[in-house]
Amino acid sequence: MKRAAAAEERLCLGSHLSVAGGAHRAVEEAIALGLASLQIFTKNASRWVQRAMREDEVAQFRAARARWGEHAVVSHESYLFYLASADGALRKRSRAAFIDELERAEQLGLDAVVTHPGAHMGSGPEKGIDRFAAELRAVFDAVPFVRTRVLIECTAGQGTVLGRSFAELAGILAAVACPARLGVCLDTCHLFAAGYDLRRAAGYEAAMRELEREIGAREVRCWHLNDSRGALGSHLDRHEHIGKGQIGASGFRALLADARFDGIPKILETPKENDMDRVNLRALRRLARPARSASPRR
Ligand SMILES: [Zn+2]
Fold it and tell me: How many CA atoms lie within 13 A of 135 on its CB side?
């Protein structure tokens, strides 16, 4: 029993769950699903300005989390990713929204806010990264660091978005130059769509060598586990159920066995209908079990 619990902690599977009815509801669902990590939105994803959180909401969330066992919770920044934009007014609104997000996350005691690095909108990755870094530093100046890191998520590389390679993520981390408050989040679907072939162990190992060279696996503080509807290098950001997409079930085996990511949240962002979280979690747990083929048959 104890060994099973330790294995679950190492695996650290989670999901992005709804906060309808309050953030504590997501924690209650995480408990029901047997999760060891969780991702939420701290606000309505489609609005710039939100009402502040009430103290009783925060208290309810913290109480639910204490019942759960203080597992890692991250939020996903609400796709207002204009921090790298050339449009100054848009950048300013985006900065204010990000400050609000980080304040909420600190208030809830979240471990991290995951964000996409945004798009350079045609002015080139270098200028885009410079703008993003300056804005993120301004966000950091506005919100004192208590607990919540900002994790830059890799992208599928569609259009002019930043973060399509480990080298580009490394460039972003270096430009922000605030390692104590930063990290990265890797999304299997985005990596695959950006051209990293995760279908076989050899492709996974090659990608991880590049990761170690450019960034270091220690900087990976969250994974998003999604299969990919789009082909390798297609730059299509379309999440698919585990094992049902172009990466395929065995593509996840090497990652789940990689001890460098023990205890690092591995969060499903796959479609939720028909109780699919339970199906995807079962698939991942099965793939995480060590192969028994080496033992002789009797
Ligand atoms: Zn993701």
Answer: 29
Q: Average the pLDDT over 11-16 and give the result.
A: 98
**294 has a pLDDT exceeding 60:** no
Averaged pLDDT of the chain = 92
CA of 119 to the centre of ligand 1 (A): 16
What's the CA-to-centroid distance between 240 and ligand 1, angstroms? 12
Report all structural domains of the chain as residue ranges with CATH numbers, in order of start: 2-287 (3.20.20.150)
Give 224 Cα–ligand 1 centroid separation in angstroms. Answer: 5
